[in-house]
Amino acid sequence: MEWFEALILGIVQGLTEYLPVSSSGHLELGKILLGINPSATNESFGTTFNVVLHLATVFSTWVILRKEIAEIFKGLFQFKLNEEFWFSAKIVVSMIPAAIIGLLYEDQIDAAFSGSAILIGLMLFLTGSLLFLADKATETNGKVGFKEAILVGIAQAIALAPGISRSGATISTCVLLKIDKERAARFSFLMVMPLIIGKVAKDLIGGEFALASETLLPMGIGFLGAFFVGLLACQWMINLVKNGKLVYFSIYCFIVGAIAVGYSLVYNV
Description:
This protein has 269 residues and is mainly alpha-helical. The chain has one domain (3-267). 77% of the residues lie in helices and 0% in strands. The chain contains 11 helices and no strands. α3 runs antiparallel to α9 (181-206) and α8 packs antiparallel against α9. It is globular. The two termini are 21 Å apart.
């Protein structure tokens, strides 16, 4: 992989991880359109590169939401039944569905969607529909309870399929459950961090994560691109959700989904 290809994919990851348009779907479409095959560099490069990009967005989230993250750690280690503890508990509960599905079916999901523009396009249609419905919601002044945490966690598990935006699915579910929009965006970004860290740990234990001297340059460039763009996109998305502008992303998902399906039918990918 060339350095500029790594930069493009890093920018795509940093932008689409937070915007509700599916980062995994856009990464796959980017690879298809650019003819990029990260795995061709060596056996484990593709997996390692994806992990590095996701780690970059974890650090971006950490910077933007550092106060909320500090509250979570405070709640977990104070061992007091206070507001911080219950918020931390809801984050943990929200992770369970995606953690189970990821552990059991991650490889099958990746295999089913890898290189399949038509499946990604159809999932983008689903994401667009969710965002359209959420944009029409008016009563959004509630808080996250345990029932809501579980339902949002299920939405995150479904969003493991490339093309279904994780942030789009979780934020839309929150809004449809009448949760305050800004709180919905922040909760959505916080709940994915432990899952990404867990996936990195899984890849490390499984020996799928590997760095080589010849891949350090594209890895580093991809990481920096995803990190700095992620900083901007995270804060931007929180403001957009707060101001109720999800319909624009709905339209975008419909357009890109249609292009992906059309591209698949023409070029049989």
